[in-house]
Amino acid sequence: MGWPAGGYPYPQGKYYCGVGEANSYGRAVVEAALRCFLKAGLRISGINAEVAPGQWEFQVGIARGIELGDHLWVARYILGRLGEEFGVCVDFEPKPVKGDWNGSGAHHNFSTVKTRSEGGLEYINVHCMNALANKHKEHIKLYGEGNEHRLTGLHETSSMNSFSFGVGHRGSSVRIPVTTDDQKCGYFEDRRPASNIDPYVSSSVIVDTVCL
């Protein structure tokens, strides 16, 4: 939506959390979806327009364990059904449009009792990041089909060929939120998973690597 036939829209930049007919495409669909998510009892914590035109994001959580996959999978189903009502196709591809356009990710915000407790930041920086770095290639294999077109090191992504992390860094494999750094405990965000991931697989491999 918002892509003219036989051409391109204005370059990305004005669409992120945008408002107005020239900046926001598809709001009626996603707000209808939000109402359905809430009516269905899904754990939905937010929804917003993203960087590329017609690109939207919704957040699932806070959820524990396998509950994450359950709620995301049902939300995708609801989106697909609503698309039928509105006459639009919902695309979960990680790089739906090639070129100078942001791809679509499924960032995983992850925490445990240890990361949220005193000393949690040191535990994240030392144990969690080392564990994820050592298993980087294994994670990439499970983080979505076609993700190589998205994880290029451009458009607010890291390169899929190497692991990196940093505080508030949108171009790293894993971002340590500023709040986690300030409070010395909290959660971290794995930015590598693509929008078409199997949430049961992607969430379980993080648990396997960090906890088991």
Give the topology.
Elements: H1 27-39, E1 44-49, E2 56-60, H2 67-86, E3 108-110, H3 113-116, H4 120-134, H5 136-141, E4 165-167, E5 174-176, H6 178-183, E6 188-190, H7 199-211
Parallel strand pairs: 4-5
Antiparallel strand pairs: 1-2, 3-6, 5-6
- Order of strands across the biggest sheet? 3-6-5-4
CATH superfamily of the largest domain: Glutamine synthetase/guanido kinase, catalytic domain
User: Percentage of helical residues?
Assistant: 25-40%
| CATH fold-level assignment of the largest domain | Creatine Kinase, Chain A, domain 2
Q: Kindly, what is the distance between the CA atoms of the first and last residues, rounded to a whole number of angstroms?
A: 43 Å
The SSE order reads: HEEHEHHHEEHEH
Instruction: Write the CATH architecture name of the largest domain.
Output: 2-Layer Sandwich
Largest sheet: 4 strands, mixed
Q: Count the domains.
A: 2
Task: Walk me through this protein's architecture.
The protein is built from seven helices and six strands. The protein is an alpha+beta fold. It has two domains: 90 residues, Glutamine synthetase/guanido kinase, catalytic domain (Creatine Kinase, Chain A, domain 2); 104 residues, Creatine Kinase, Chain A, domain 2 (2-Layer Sandwich). It has a four-stranded mixed sheet. Strands 1-2 form a two-stranded antiparallel sheet. Strand 1 and strand 2 form a beta hairpin. Helix 1 crosses helix 2. The protein is globular, with a radius of gyration of 17 Å. The mean pLDDT is 96.
